[in-house]
Amino acid sequence: MKKLNNSNVLFVTHSITSSPKDEWIDFLKQRCKRLVCIDHPFSYIKDDIRSSFAVYEHGKLIKKGICHCPANGRFSEFIFLLRDFILNIVWGLKAGKIDLCISLDPFNTFCMLLLRKIGRINKLIYYVIDYVPVRFLNKVKNSIYHFVDRRCCYNVDLIWNLSTRMQDGREINGVNLKKCAPSLIVPMGVDLSRIKPFEFSEIERQTIVYMGAFLHKQGIQLVLSVISDLIKDIPKLKFVIIGLGKYEKDMRKLINELKIEKYVDIKGYIKGHAQVEQILCKCAVGMATYRIEEDSFSYYADPGKVKVYLGCGLPVIITKFPLIAYKIEEEDAGYAIEYSAKELKEALLKLLTDDELYQKMRANAIKMSKDYNWNDICKRALSESCVDIGEEKIG
Question: What pLDDT does residue 374 have?
Protein backbone atom coordinates (compact mmCIF):
# COMPACT_ATOMS: atom_id res chain seq x y z
CA MET A 1 0.00 0.00 0.00
CA LYS A 2 0.98 3.69 -0.13
CA LYS A 3 3.16 5.29 2.52
CA LEU A 4 1.09 6.30 5.53
CA ASN A 5 1.66 10.01 4.96
CA ASN A 6 -0.03 9.69 1.58
CA SER A 7 -2.84 7.37 2.69
CA ASN A 8 -6.53 7.64 3.58
CA VAL A 9 -7.10 5.72 6.81
CA LEU A 10 -10.36 4.61 8.46
CA PHE A 11 -10.51 3.78 12.18
CA VAL A 12 -13.70 2.14 13.50
CA THR A 13 -14.38 1.37 17.15
CA HIS A 14 -16.73 0.78 20.05
CA SER A 15 -15.14 2.47 23.01
CA ILE A 16 -15.21 3.00 26.74
CA THR A 17 -12.64 3.94 29.43
CA SER A 18 -10.06 1.28 28.58
CA SER A 19 -10.26 1.54 24.78
CA PRO A 20 -7.08 2.43 22.85
CA LYS A 21 -9.12 4.70 20.56
CA ASP A 22 -7.72 8.07 21.63
CA GLU A 23 -4.11 6.94 21.51
CA TRP A 24 -4.43 5.46 18.03
CA ILE A 25 -6.25 8.52 16.73
CA ASP A 26 -3.56 10.82 18.15
CA PHE A 27 -0.88 8.69 16.52
CA LEU A 28 -2.55 8.27 13.12
CA LYS A 29 -3.90 11.78 12.54
CA GLN A 30 -0.38 13.23 12.66
CA ARG A 31 1.00 10.68 10.22
CA CYS A 32 -1.57 10.03 7.50
CA LYS A 33 -2.97 12.22 4.75
CA ARG A 34 -6.58 11.76 5.83
CA LEU A 35 -8.06 9.98 8.86
CA VAL A 36 -11.74 9.16 9.27
CA CYS A 37 -12.88 7.91 12.70
CA ILE A 38 -16.18 6.17 13.40
CA ASP A 39 -16.91 5.66 17.11
CA HIS A 40 -19.88 3.92 18.75
CA PRO A 41 -20.74 3.68 22.47
CA PHE A 42 -21.70 0.28 23.85
CA SER A 43 -25.42 -0.37 24.15
CA TYR A 44 -25.33 -0.58 27.97
CA ILE A 45 -24.09 3.02 28.35
CA LYS A 46 -27.22 4.85 29.45
CA ASP A 47 -25.76 8.35 29.27
CA ASP A 48 -26.54 10.48 26.25
CA ILE A 49 -23.40 9.43 24.37
CA ARG A 50 -23.96 9.10 20.61
CA SER A 51 -22.20 7.44 17.70
CA SER A 52 -19.89 9.93 16.05
CA PHE A 53 -17.54 10.44 13.13
CA ALA A 54 -14.58 12.76 12.71
CA VAL A 55 -12.40 13.61 9.72
CA TYR A 56 -8.79 14.80 10.01
CA GLU A 57 -6.71 16.07 7.11
CA HIS A 58 -2.99 16.64 7.55
CA GLY A 59 -3.46 16.34 11.30
CA LYS A 60 -6.28 18.89 11.62
CA LEU A 61 -9.92 18.19 12.46
CA ILE A 62 -12.02 19.41 9.51
CA LYS A 63 -15.37 17.73 10.17
CA LYS A 64 -17.18 16.20 13.11
CA GLY A 65 -20.69 14.89 13.52
CA ILE A 66 -22.93 12.71 15.64
CA CYS A 67 -25.83 10.40 14.96
CA HIS A 68 -29.15 11.92 16.05
CA CYS A 69 -30.71 8.49 16.65
CA PRO A 70 -32.12 7.80 20.15
CA ALA A 71 -29.50 7.62 22.87
CA ASN A 72 -28.42 4.34 24.43
CA GLY A 73 -30.30 2.55 27.17
CA ARG A 74 -33.78 3.17 25.70
CA PHE A 75 -34.10 0.35 23.20
CA SER A 76 -32.98 -3.26 22.74
CA GLU A 77 -29.41 -4.23 21.90
CA PHE A 78 -30.58 -5.45 18.49
CA ILE A 79 -31.86 -1.96 17.58
CA PHE A 80 -28.48 -0.48 18.42
CA LEU A 81 -26.60 -3.11 16.45
CA LEU A 82 -28.82 -2.32 13.47
CA ARG A 83 -28.17 1.39 13.95
CA ASP A 84 -24.41 0.81 14.15
CA PHE A 85 -24.52 -1.38 11.02
CA ILE A 86 -26.28 1.33 9.03
CA LEU A 87 -23.94 4.04 10.30
CA ASN A 88 -20.86 1.97 9.53
CA ILE A 89 -21.97 1.44 5.94
CA VAL A 90 -23.17 5.02 5.35
CA TRP A 91 -20.20 6.72 7.01
CA GLY A 92 -17.81 4.16 5.55
CA LEU A 93 -19.04 4.96 2.04
CA LYS A 94 -18.75 8.70 2.73
CA ALA A 95 -15.13 8.16 3.77
CA GLY A 96 -14.26 7.46 0.11
CA LYS A 97 -11.55 5.08 -1.04
CA ILE A 98 -9.65 3.78 1.99
CA ASP A 99 -6.04 2.60 1.83
CA LEU A 100 -5.97 1.20 5.36
CA CYS A 101 -8.82 0.36 7.75
CA ILE A 102 -8.21 -0.59 11.39
CA SER A 103 -11.42 -1.95 12.90
CA LEU A 104 -12.05 -2.85 16.54
CA ASP A 105 -14.84 -5.29 17.43
CA PRO A 106 -16.00 -8.21 15.23
CA PHE A 107 -19.30 -6.55 14.32
CA ASN A 108 -17.60 -3.38 13.07
CA THR A 109 -15.08 -5.47 11.16
CA PHE A 110 -17.83 -7.55 9.55
CA CYS A 111 -19.32 -4.29 8.20
CA MET A 112 -15.91 -3.29 6.86
CA LEU A 113 -15.62 -6.64 5.05
CA LEU A 114 -18.70 -5.65 3.06
CA LEU A 115 -17.08 -2.35 2.10
CA ARG A 116 -13.88 -4.13 1.10
CA LYS A 117 -15.94 -6.56 -1.00
CA ILE A 118 -17.09 -3.64 -3.18
CA GLY A 119 -13.58 -2.24 -3.46
CA ARG A 120 -13.79 0.66 -1.00
CA ILE A 121 -11.07 -0.66 1.35
CA ASN A 122 -7.63 -1.80 0.26
CA LYS A 123 -6.15 -3.25 3.48
CA LEU A 124 -8.27 -4.33 6.47
CA ILE A 125 -6.90 -5.04 9.96
CA TYR A 126 -9.09 -6.68 12.62
CA TYR A 127 -7.97 -5.31 15.99
CA VAL A 128 -9.29 -7.70 18.66
CA ILE A 129 -9.70 -5.94 22.00
CA ASP A 130 -12.08 -8.51 23.54
CA TYR A 131 -12.38 -12.22 22.85
CA VAL A 132 -13.91 -14.95 24.99
CA PRO A 133 -15.36 -18.37 24.06
CA VAL A 134 -18.56 -17.70 26.02
CA ARG A 135 -19.34 -14.12 25.07
CA PHE A 136 -23.09 -14.43 25.70
CA LEU A 137 -25.03 -16.83 27.93
CA ASN A 138 -27.72 -16.92 25.24
CA LYS A 139 -26.55 -19.73 22.93
CA VAL A 140 -28.00 -18.12 19.78
CA LYS A 141 -26.30 -14.78 20.45
CA ASN A 142 -23.06 -16.54 21.34
CA SER A 143 -23.15 -18.57 18.10
CA ILE A 144 -23.72 -15.41 16.05
CA TYR A 145 -20.83 -13.67 17.82
CA HIS A 146 -18.44 -16.52 17.00
CA PHE A 147 -19.72 -16.84 13.44
CA VAL A 148 -18.94 -13.15 12.88
CA ASP A 149 -15.51 -13.46 14.55
CA ARG A 150 -14.61 -16.45 12.34
CA ARG A 151 -15.71 -14.67 9.17
CA CYS A 152 -13.52 -11.73 10.16
CA CYS A 153 -10.51 -13.92 10.97
CA TYR A 154 -10.81 -15.81 7.68
CA ASN A 155 -11.29 -12.76 5.45
CA VAL A 156 -9.31 -9.78 6.77
CA ASP A 157 -5.71 -9.08 5.77
CA LEU A 158 -4.31 -9.13 9.28
CA ILE A 159 -5.41 -9.81 12.87
CA TRP A 160 -4.09 -7.81 15.81
CA ASN A 161 -4.64 -9.72 19.08
CA LEU A 162 -4.01 -8.31 22.55
CA SER A 163 -2.50 -11.57 23.77
CA THR A 164 -1.48 -15.06 22.65
CA ARG A 165 -4.43 -16.47 24.59
CA MET A 166 -6.89 -15.09 22.02
CA GLN A 167 -5.69 -17.40 19.24
CA ASP A 168 -5.49 -20.28 21.72
CA GLY A 169 -9.10 -19.64 22.70
CA ARG A 170 -10.20 -19.59 19.07
CA GLU A 171 -8.50 -22.91 18.38
CA ILE A 172 -10.19 -24.50 21.40
CA ASN A 173 -13.47 -23.07 20.10
CA GLY A 174 -13.13 -24.77 16.72
CA VAL A 175 -11.61 -21.99 14.60
CA ASN A 176 -9.31 -23.28 11.87
CA LEU A 177 -6.17 -21.23 12.51
CA LYS A 178 -4.72 -22.27 9.15
CA LYS A 179 -7.56 -20.40 7.44
CA CYS A 180 -7.07 -17.29 9.56
CA ALA A 181 -5.23 -14.20 8.39
CA PRO A 182 -1.71 -13.70 9.83
CA SER A 183 -1.80 -12.41 13.41
CA LEU A 184 0.32 -10.09 15.55
CA ILE A 185 0.32 -9.36 19.27
CA VAL A 186 -0.52 -5.67 19.76
CA PRO A 187 -0.92 -5.13 23.53
CA MET A 188 -2.61 -2.29 25.35
CA GLY A 189 -0.32 0.60 26.22
CA VAL A 190 -0.14 3.93 27.97
CA ASP A 191 0.46 7.43 26.61
CA LEU A 192 3.53 8.40 28.61
CA SER A 193 3.85 11.73 26.83
CA ARG A 194 0.66 12.86 28.54
CA ILE A 195 1.33 11.51 32.04
CA LYS A 196 3.59 13.04 34.63
CA PRO A 197 3.56 11.04 37.89
CA PHE A 198 3.39 13.15 41.04
CA GLU A 199 6.17 13.33 43.57
CA PHE A 200 5.78 10.89 46.47
CA SER A 201 5.00 13.80 48.82
CA GLU A 202 2.12 14.94 46.58
CA ILE A 203 0.08 11.73 46.41
CA GLU A 204 -2.80 10.71 48.67
CA ARG A 205 -0.81 8.00 50.42
CA GLN A 206 -3.78 5.90 51.58
CA THR A 207 -6.01 6.20 48.52
CA ILE A 208 -6.55 3.19 46.29
CA VAL A 209 -8.28 3.34 42.91
CA TYR A 210 -10.18 1.22 40.39
CA MET A 211 -10.72 2.37 36.80
CA GLY A 212 -12.82 0.53 34.21
CA ALA A 213 -16.15 -1.15 33.62
CA PHE A 214 -18.40 -1.91 36.60
CA LEU A 215 -18.89 -5.65 36.14
CA HIS A 216 -19.11 -8.48 38.67
CA LYS A 217 -16.17 -10.29 37.05
CA GLN A 218 -13.90 -7.29 37.68
CA GLY A 219 -13.84 -8.08 41.39
CA ILE A 220 -14.62 -4.60 42.76
CA GLN A 221 -16.67 -6.38 45.44
CA LEU A 222 -13.52 -8.08 46.79
CA VAL A 223 -11.94 -4.68 47.46
CA LEU A 224 -15.13 -3.39 49.10
CA SER A 225 -15.30 -6.47 51.34
CA VAL A 226 -11.92 -5.75 53.02
CA ILE A 227 -12.38 -2.03 53.69
CA SER A 228 -14.07 -2.49 57.10
CA ASP A 229 -11.07 -4.47 58.36
CA LEU A 230 -8.45 -2.21 56.76
CA ILE A 231 -9.76 1.01 58.33
CA LYS A 232 -8.83 -0.35 61.77
CA ASP A 233 -5.18 0.08 60.77
CA ILE A 234 -5.63 2.66 58.01
CA PRO A 235 -8.35 5.08 59.21
CA LYS A 236 -7.78 7.50 56.31
CA LEU A 237 -8.26 4.83 53.67
CA LYS A 238 -10.21 5.95 50.58
CA PHE A 239 -11.31 3.87 47.58
CA VAL A 240 -11.85 5.89 44.37
CA ILE A 241 -13.91 4.16 41.65
CA ILE A 242 -13.97 5.47 38.05
CA GLY A 243 -16.16 4.08 35.27
CA LEU A 244 -19.64 2.71 34.67
CA GLY A 245 -21.43 -0.53 33.93
CA LYS A 246 -24.10 -3.07 34.78
CA TYR A 247 -22.78 -3.82 38.27
CA GLU A 248 -23.16 -0.26 39.57
CA LYS A 249 -26.55 -0.78 41.27
CA ASP A 250 -25.36 -3.92 43.10
CA MET A 251 -22.07 -2.22 43.94
CA ARG A 252 -23.82 0.74 45.58
CA LYS A 253 -26.10 -1.65 47.48
CA LEU A 254 -23.08 -3.55 48.81
CA ILE A 255 -21.40 -0.30 49.90
CA ASN A 256 -24.54 0.61 51.89
CA GLU A 257 -24.80 -2.86 53.44
CA LEU A 258 -21.16 -2.72 54.55
CA LYS A 259 -21.65 0.84 55.88
CA ILE A 260 -18.50 2.09 54.16
CA GLU A 261 -20.00 5.02 52.22
CA LYS A 262 -17.58 7.56 53.76
CA TYR A 263 -14.57 5.56 52.49
CA VAL A 264 -15.73 5.12 48.88
CA ASP A 265 -15.78 7.84 46.20
CA ILE A 266 -17.61 6.76 43.02
CA LYS A 267 -16.57 9.24 40.32
CA GLY A 268 -18.63 7.58 37.57
CA TYR A 269 -17.76 7.81 33.89
CA ILE A 270 -15.14 10.42 32.96
CA LYS A 271 -14.76 10.87 29.22
CA GLY A 272 -11.34 12.51 28.97
CA HIS A 273 -8.35 10.21 29.47
CA ALA A 274 -6.18 13.11 30.64
CA GLN A 275 -8.64 13.92 33.43
CA VAL A 276 -8.75 10.27 34.51
CA GLU A 277 -4.96 10.11 34.55
CA GLN A 278 -4.76 13.21 36.75
CA ILE A 279 -6.97 11.49 39.31
CA LEU A 280 -4.92 8.29 39.11
CA CYS A 281 -1.63 10.14 39.60
CA LYS A 282 -2.96 11.46 42.91
CA CYS A 283 -3.73 7.94 44.18
CA ALA A 284 -1.36 5.38 45.71
CA VAL A 285 -2.33 1.89 44.48
CA GLY A 286 -4.18 0.58 41.40
CA MET A 287 -6.67 -2.27 41.83
CA ALA A 288 -7.22 -5.09 39.29
CA THR A 289 -8.78 -7.88 41.35
CA TYR A 290 -10.36 -9.93 38.57
CA ARG A 291 -12.44 -12.95 39.53
CA ILE A 292 -10.81 -16.20 38.41
CA GLU A 293 -13.13 -17.20 35.56
CA GLU A 294 -11.51 -18.70 32.49
CA ASP A 295 -14.49 -17.71 30.32
CA SER A 296 -13.79 -14.06 31.18
CA PHE A 297 -12.52 -11.40 28.77
CA SER A 298 -9.72 -10.63 31.20
CA TYR A 299 -8.21 -14.11 30.83
CA TYR A 300 -7.84 -13.75 27.06
CA ALA A 301 -7.16 -10.02 26.80
CA ASP A 302 -4.54 -7.57 28.04
CA PRO A 303 -6.05 -5.14 30.57
CA GLY A 304 -5.49 -1.53 29.56
CA LYS A 305 -6.11 -0.15 33.05
CA VAL A 306 -3.02 -1.90 34.39
CA LYS A 307 -0.71 -0.13 31.94
CA VAL A 308 -2.25 3.24 32.86
CA TYR A 309 -1.81 2.52 36.57
CA LEU A 310 1.87 1.76 35.97
CA GLY A 311 2.36 4.90 33.89
CA CYS A 312 0.81 7.01 36.65
CA GLY A 313 3.28 5.55 39.15
CA LEU A 314 0.83 3.23 40.91
CA PRO A 315 2.00 -0.17 42.13
CA VAL A 316 -0.72 -2.65 41.12
CA ILE A 317 -2.52 -5.31 43.11
CA ILE A 318 -3.78 -7.82 40.56
CA THR A 319 -5.16 -11.33 40.74
CA LYS A 320 -3.17 -14.12 39.07
CA PHE A 321 -5.44 -14.23 36.06
CA PRO A 322 -4.36 -12.13 33.04
CA LEU A 323 -0.83 -12.71 31.76
CA ILE A 324 0.29 -9.23 32.81
CA ALA A 325 -0.09 -10.28 36.48
CA TYR A 326 2.95 -12.51 36.23
CA LYS A 327 4.98 -9.71 34.63
CA ILE A 328 4.05 -7.35 37.48
CA GLU A 329 5.18 -9.97 39.99
CA GLU A 330 8.43 -10.53 38.09
CA GLU A 331 9.20 -6.81 37.90
CA ASP A 332 8.25 -6.25 41.58
CA ALA A 333 5.84 -3.49 40.48
CA GLY A 334 3.04 -4.60 42.80
CA TYR A 335 1.49 -7.82 44.08
CA ALA A 336 -0.03 -10.70 42.10
CA ILE A 337 -2.48 -12.47 44.42
CA GLU A 338 -5.12 -15.16 44.42
CA TYR A 339 -8.75 -14.00 44.51
CA SER A 340 -8.62 -13.90 48.29
CA ALA A 341 -9.69 -11.32 50.86
CA LYS A 342 -6.85 -12.43 53.12
CA GLU A 343 -4.16 -11.96 50.45
CA LEU A 344 -5.68 -8.65 49.36
CA LYS A 345 -5.67 -7.27 52.91
CA GLU A 346 -2.06 -8.32 53.43
CA ALA A 347 -0.93 -6.71 50.16
CA LEU A 348 -2.78 -3.46 50.88
CA LEU A 349 -1.46 -3.21 54.43
CA LYS A 350 2.10 -3.56 53.18
CA LEU A 351 1.76 -1.03 50.37
CA LEU A 352 -0.22 1.55 52.34
CA THR A 353 1.89 1.52 55.52
CA ASP A 354 5.49 0.70 54.47
CA ASP A 355 6.92 3.79 52.75
CA GLU A 356 10.23 2.16 51.83
CA LEU A 357 8.54 -0.83 50.18
CA TYR A 358 6.01 1.42 48.49
CA GLN A 359 8.58 3.75 46.96
CA LYS A 360 10.59 0.81 45.62
CA MET A 361 7.50 -0.68 43.93
CA ARG A 362 6.42 2.73 42.68
CA ALA A 363 9.79 3.22 40.96
CA ASN A 364 9.50 -0.28 39.44
CA ALA A 365 5.98 0.50 38.18
CA ILE A 366 7.16 3.63 36.37
CA LYS A 367 10.10 1.74 34.89
CA MET A 368 7.87 -1.13 33.74
CA SER A 369 5.42 1.28 32.05
CA LYS A 370 8.12 2.32 29.58
CA ASP A 371 7.79 -1.10 27.92
CA TYR A 372 4.18 -0.20 27.03
CA ASN A 373 4.52 3.28 25.56
CA TRP A 374 1.67 3.66 23.03
CA ASN A 375 3.88 5.52 20.56
CA ASP A 376 6.27 2.57 20.38
CA ILE A 377 3.45 0.02 20.22
CA CYS A 378 1.76 1.85 17.32
CA LYS A 379 5.00 2.14 15.35
CA ARG A 380 5.88 -1.51 15.86
CA ALA A 381 2.37 -2.75 14.97
CA LEU A 382 2.23 -0.82 11.70
CA SER A 383 5.80 -1.67 10.75
CA GLU A 384 5.20 -5.40 11.33
CA SER A 385 1.97 -5.04 9.29
CA CYS A 386 4.02 -3.79 6.32
CA VAL A 387 2.77 -0.21 6.61
CA ASP A 388 5.49 2.34 5.86
CA ILE A 389 4.99 5.09 8.46
CA GLY A 390 8.15 7.03 7.57
CA GLU A 391 9.78 9.17 10.20
CA GLU A 392 8.14 12.58 9.85
CA LYS A 393 4.82 13.65 11.31
CA ILE A 394 2.38 15.67 9.23
CA GLY A 395 1.68 19.25 10.16
Answer: 94
Return the CATH fold of 4-189+373-384. Answer: Rossmann fold (3.40.50)
Task: Domain ranges for the chain, please list them.
Answer: 4-189+373-384, 200-372
In the predicted model, residues of the chain with pLDDT beneath 70 are 1, 16-19, 42-49, 68-77, 294-297, 391-395
Cβ count near 380 (within 10 Å): 13
360 phi and psi, to 5 degrees?
-65, -45
Contacts of 104 (CB under 8 A, 6+ apart): 12, 13, 14, 15, 19, 20, 21, 127, 128, 129
What topology is assigned to 200-372 in CATH? Answer: Rossmann fold (3.40.50)
Q: What is the pLDDT, as a whole number, of residue 139?
A: 86
Cα dist. 63→14, 84, 88, 115, 161 in Å?
20, 20, 17, 22, 31
Long-range contacts of 54-62 (CB under 8 A, 24+ apart): 54/25, 55/95, 56/25, 56/29, 57/33, 58/33, 58/394, 58/395, 59/29, 59/30, 59/393, 59/394, 59/395, 60/395
